[in-house]
Amino acid sequence: MEEILVAAEDLAQGQAIAKGKLRWQPWPQGSLHPNFISRQAKPDALASLEGALVRNSLVSGEPIREDKLVRSSSGLLSALLPAGKRAIAIRVSAESTAGGFILPNDRVDVIQTIARQPGNQSENLTRTVLNNIRVLAVDQRADDTKRDAAVVGKTVTLELSPAQAEVIASGQATGALSLALRSVVDADEIAVERREVGGVVRILRAGRSEIVRTQ
Question: Is 197 exposed, middle or buried (0-12, 13-18, 19+ CB in 10 A)?
Fold first, then answer.
C-alpha cells in the first residue's frame, strides 16, 4: 500500500481547496496511476495545494490529479480555459439551444442563418460554420453537473481557438447563430471550421473590363 492524495469530501467545480478538503488515503501499489499524487513523491501536497481551484467536480475519496486542479489568481472561467483557447459568448434563446438542453461541457455545432432579400423575394441561407465546439458556460453557470433537465439562458460561452473566435464574431454581425447539440459518441471528432474561399475574376465583355469577386 502507498498513501495518495484524495478528496476528503465532495468538491464542486470552481471551489477553492481549503484546509481539511484533502486527505491521505492508503492505495494498492498495483493500482497506482502515474498522475496520482503520492505522499512519498510530494509530502507537502496538503499545504502546497491550498487555494488551488477545482477544474472538474470531485467526489469524496476520488484520487487527486494535477490536471484536476488549477492555480490561478484570475477568475474561474479564465482558469478553466486551456492554453491557447479563447472564450466568447453568443446570444441565444430556447429555440436556438435545443430547447435549453445544452449544458456546460456539452459539444455543439454552430449554425449561421442569414436573411436576404434579392429583388422582391426573401430567403434564408443557412450554413454550419463550426463543428464540435465545447460549451464552457450557460449564462453565469459553468458547473458541469446536470442536476437540472434543462437550462434556458440568454448567452452561451464557447471554448474556441483565436481563428474560431473571429468566425463567431463575424457570424454574429452578419446573421443569427444557433447551436446544434451533438451526441456524446461524436465528442472525439476533431473540431473544424469551415472557411469560404474567395477570389477575383476579370470579365471582358464587348471591349469593357469588369472585376467580379467570387465566393
Answer: exposed
Q: What is the pLDDT of residue 187?
A: 67
In angstroms, what is the C-alpha Rg of the chain?
24
Number of neighbouring beta carbons within 10 Å of residue 58: 25
Number of Cβ atoms within 10 Å of the Cβ of 38: 17
Question: Cα(120)–Cα(134) distance, rounded to whole angstroms?
Answer: 40
Nearest to 50 by CA among 18, 23, 24: 18
- CA–CA dist 65, 172 (Å, integer): 38
Spacing of C-alpha 49 from chain mean position? 25
8 Å CB contact between 134 and 182:
no
Q: What is the pTM of this model?
A: 0.63
CA dist 60 and 177 (Å) reads 40
**Which residues of the chain are under the pLDDT cut of 50?**
none
Q: SS3 letters for 72-105? A: CCCCHHHHHCCCCCEEEEEECCCCCCHHHCCCCC
- Whole-number Å distance between alpha carbons of 58 and 53: 11
